[in-house]
Amino acid sequence: MNTSTYAIRNTVNATLKASSKISLAATLLLAGLSAVNAAPLQVSHFNPGENSIFAVSSSFISGEHEMMLVDAQFQNNDAQKLVDTIKASGKKLTQVYISHSDPDFYFGLAVIKKNFPDAQIVATQTTVDAIKASMEGKLAYWGPILKDNAPSELVLPKAIHSDTFTIDGEQVIIKGFNDKHPKHTFLWVPSAKTITGGVEVFDNTHVWMADTQTASERQEWLTHLDAMEKLLPTTVIPGHYLGKARFNTHAICFTRKYVKAFEIAAKASKDSAELIQKMLALYPQMPADAGLEISAKVYMGEMTWPM
Fold this sequence. Notes:
Elements: H1 3-37, E1 42-46, E2 58-62, E3 66-70, H2 76-89, E4 92-97, H3 103-106, H4 109-115, E5 120-123, H5 125-146, E6 158-159, E7 164-167, E8 170-175, E9 186-189, E10 194-196, E11 202-203, H6 215-230, E12 235-236, E13 240-241, H7 250-267, H8 272-282, H9 290-299
Parallel strand pairs: 3-4, 4-5, 5-6, 10-12, 11-13
Antiparallel strand pairs: 1-2, 2-3, 7-8, 8-9, 9-10
């Protein structure tokens, strides 16, 4: 083999090695980009606690560029805090999901809509129907109490027809969406292993029992709590809580235990006053509140709900 042949062969080998390095580098780069794109969503939340009438949670589900808001608060001043948080993030608010039909979940929508007119405001069809049927009456009752913090207009979400949202390519799933009676749903964020939204999880506050007046409704509730645990979440954001919540499956256990304890106490009580005292004895760290009083009266047949 002459010198020219050696030179040609060496040049070819060098070219192949360089191509291999470039190919490997490109593969690693693409893998790195994929890893970035597959980054889990981040979930944070706001709860006004004792500073407001209802200690209701709103959650922010964020990707690298996009954000989703879950529930809009009850009071205008608290809804404005949501707006401030979203604007400070620098991310695009793509959608607002209302997870329940009680006014503490949606009264703040006018403030949100004014600041983010392009964001889609949605809920399940069942939730939309329930809000539409009761929103005027709720405003008539709460408006004089809230005064300047009452909504300037009532915003009705649009019905969503899919159980899945997408934020920066990652899924957020509405659990319970396909149930026969999807009165209560919650959100599951798989990439963050987080449960949020809905009215079925409480912590460190009396559980609202007035909306589950039959044994079958309460059993369905307990079944939903079991389904939550089976997802093995690392984070659980209660829909309502006071004080220092632990944001894990403790809240699910707390709620289940309370529901069962309430049923047992009710069977052993002659009236709502006795039921209230039994629950206060079981949970001495939690002061009596309107929720406990109403729930006890409804359960013992002394009051109709909704009014």
